[in-house]
């Protein structure tokens, strides 16, 4: 016979387990949650330097999910406790003799028969542990014995000492693929590669490249010249300002603001899941603009008196009502950048990193990508070794397990560590310095400079290949080249590119003039003339 008491007991048990799980994670890794108020941070817990930032971010999202479940079940429990009718029904059911002598006793007999436990069996310890209605005087001792039994060190010690050679291959495959999840089974669906993009670097930078491309395509009164298109860095510096040339009443601009605001709000929740951001979102601010600029009308005034009289006019009030949604979204975006301290820091980090990447050469970018791929393999995302949580004992046991099995892998790693490159010789595809004869054959001792992309290259082959790189093509665009980039191949100086570009433009103009002059027409009297002259005379009425 089911009663609401069972639901209350289950909810109370879940709340206790959730509270213990959250407390345990904060105790093991104090970087997961640190109060903003310095008075609340007593620095009792020491930081675990072995846990990476990625693992910390993942555990923050895990605690957030556990906390949401805690809040949901707490509200459900409050609802059950406030239901007086359910309490009366439970009391009535408990007084029913069928509850004690009928259903409950038969259910207990079935359970004991299936498990094979009788009343005469010696199960005093289990009874003391699981009896919720008795006071266990030796509870701490019993709990300590259970924890010792569940210690992974004691479980593995016997297995290490008694393993045989016949199971060597099986153990090797198990240990190589063995990982210990930091996440619980309830939050095992969390994944940092889904929560963050690679450009966000686990919430340390912003990824606004999609918004930048959308911003470039917005309708404007004066379009950008093809030779001076703003770069991603310029967009980040002016993201808190209103571009006066944009047609702000267009639907494209409204869609741009909506997607930008949605991204910023989701990014704040993803980068700092355990903090409350409602106060930052509710406070109001506005886009940065000149002092006498009206955002509702998108108009700049020259005098203060004219500006204040405009604010009280009917035209301004109608424009404010018409563009209320756009002004609200702009206000929220400006508020997030001005009030959210974390977003300020992350925007500055993004700007600095973008400026640094623009100064890198092609070779430096390739080396940086290789370093990032190596660090990503070693970075903890959703797993971590048990030595982080169980101390050095487990670490010693795991070292004994891996000592004999990973002999071949360790020998390869020692060879890699012995490889040195004191002469700074270029590396081959295998990551090793190339031999000297190949160095001379490829002509790597000669350096070639390119003024267009502002880079230096070793070897003629590398220099020729770089003409197809995106960095070189962007440099040609900055010089005014719009198409036919293959015509400017093998040109590495700015003067050569500008001279050839002027020649091509002059040739194009001459061809257009020749086409205009080559087309002949006749008037009513049979006089032959070019079509251009005929159109001019007809407009003047001289024919």
From TrEMBL:
GO MF term set: RNA binding; zinc ion binding
Keyword Nucleus carried by entry: yes
Domain of life: Eukaryota
SUPFAM superfamilies: beta-beta-alpha zinc fingers
Residue ranges of every copy of the C2H2-type domain listed in the record: 294-316, 450-472
Main location: nucleus
Keywords: Metal-binding, Nucleus, Zinc, Zinc-finger
PROSITE patterns documented for this protein: ZINC_FINGER_C2H2_1
Gene Ontology BP annotations: mRNA splicing, via spliceosome
Gene3D superfamilies in alphabetical order: Classic Zinc Finger
Recorded coiled-coil stretches: none
Gene Ontology cellular-component annotations: spliceosomal complex
Keyword Nucleus belongs to the record: yes
Localization per Swiss-Prot or TrEMBL: Nucleus
UniProt-listed InterPro entries: Matrin/U1-like-C_Znf_C2H2, RNA_Proc_DNA_Dmg_Regulator, SF3a60/Prp9_C, Znf_C2H2_jaz, Znf_C2H2_sf, Znf_C2H2_type
Protein name in the entry: C2H2-type domain-containing protein
